[in-house]
Amino acid sequence: MALTAVHVSNVPNLDQVAKKASLSLYSTRCSQGLELKMAASFKIPKFLVIGHRGHGMNIVQSSDSRMTAIKENSILSFNSAAKFPIDFIEFDVQVTKDDCPVIFHDDFILSEENGTVFEKRVTELCLAEFLCYGTQREAGKEGKCLLRKTKDGKIVKWNVETDDSLCTLEEAFQKVEPSLGFNIELKFDDNIVYQQHHLIHVLQIILQVVFEFAKDRSIIFSSFQPDAAQLFRKLQNNYPVFFLTNGGTELYYDVRRNSLEEAIKVCLEGGLQGIVSEIKGVFRNPGAVPKIKESKLSLLTYGKLNNVPEAVYMQHLMGIDGVIVDFVKEISQAVDDMIKPVKAVIAEERLSQGNGETDAKSKLLFSQQELSFLLKLISELIQH
């Protein structure tokens, strides 16, 4: 059955609900704050490092022990990430059948009973059912086993070195280090066409929790679902909303999801503040970065290449505003080692130029011509 399109102009505004929410998205880790004005202007004052699903995503059959160290999207993962000099953690929020926002990445929970593997959609579970899977909070209580499907379709046990229980959005606000910002992905199934009233209901439920428990925490919202992203921007003016995209690395029926140029259109039409793109999409199309900046949009990236320090440094030179990473320890340290010294060099060079001096350390910086060459080289490599 064909479903009606979402018309955000017809959506009621929830600004009156946001009395407790701060218009200044201030974080002690982001010393200048993230400023969001009612006119939708948005400024990221520094290069951000964001922990993917907290301390990093799980790949249960990975030979890299860092991918199975701590259960992703858990309170333990979030607070473990907070031990490093990162600015935000990213995590996925869905709403259960009984209207509770919970944190979980996959659309389905996989488990096993009496030798039979089954899957249940997260949004069709009530909260009590959702929380009964995996490690339990209560001592001596055993939860139902959690399985996970690998990229090649195998179903394996979701084993990690340090496990933790599933959690709700409310718990994250209450139990995670308060100086750590949240990048909350509004999670929807790629294979479902959602009706407007359903999207509004889900987003309102999430907003209620945010307005009640967020306090002064810095928050950025994002979604791959373009209608949900535009609706969320319509429903509130307190927090920036970014549109998530694969940047053309994968193709979808909804053309709005198939390129950075389309992502720009989604943002401008819906008054969104920025784009979060798969880094391969940016490296394949580096010319989109100045277009994004000219549109006064912020740009963050995600993807495996963000676990490579040199790729992160290149993004800093390109003017990208931040990266979502799995290896929070290594990348946060690399950012400290590579980016902060360069900023110091620039400041020192400006002072020394007044005395007719030049600093040899400035050779660490690429000229515009060198940067253009590197971008073309990367683009060619990524295409193949």
From TrEMBL:
GO molecular function: any one? glycerophosphodiester phosphodiesterase activity
Q: What EC number(s) does this enzyme carry?
A: 3.1.4.46
Which reaction is the catalytic activity of this chain? Answer: a sn-glycero-3-phosphodiester + H2O = an alcohol + sn-glycerol 3-phosphate + H(+)
**GO biological process per UniProt:** glycerol metabolic process; glycerophospholipid catabolic process
According to its UniProt record, this protein's enzyme class is hydrolase
Every copy of the GP-PDE domain together lies at: 47-335
PROSITE patterns (alphabetical): GP_PDE
Supply the Gene3D superfamilies for this chain.
Answer: Phosphatidylinositol (PI) phosphodiesterase
Database matches in InterPro entries: GDPD (IPR051578), GP_PDE_dom (IPR030395), PLC-like_Pdiesterase_TIM-brl (IPR017946)
Keywords for this protein: Glycerol metabolism, Hydrolase
Give the family per the record: Belongs to the glycerophosphoryl diester phosphodiesterase family.
Query: Could you identify this protein by its name?
Result: glycerophosphodiester phosphodiesterase
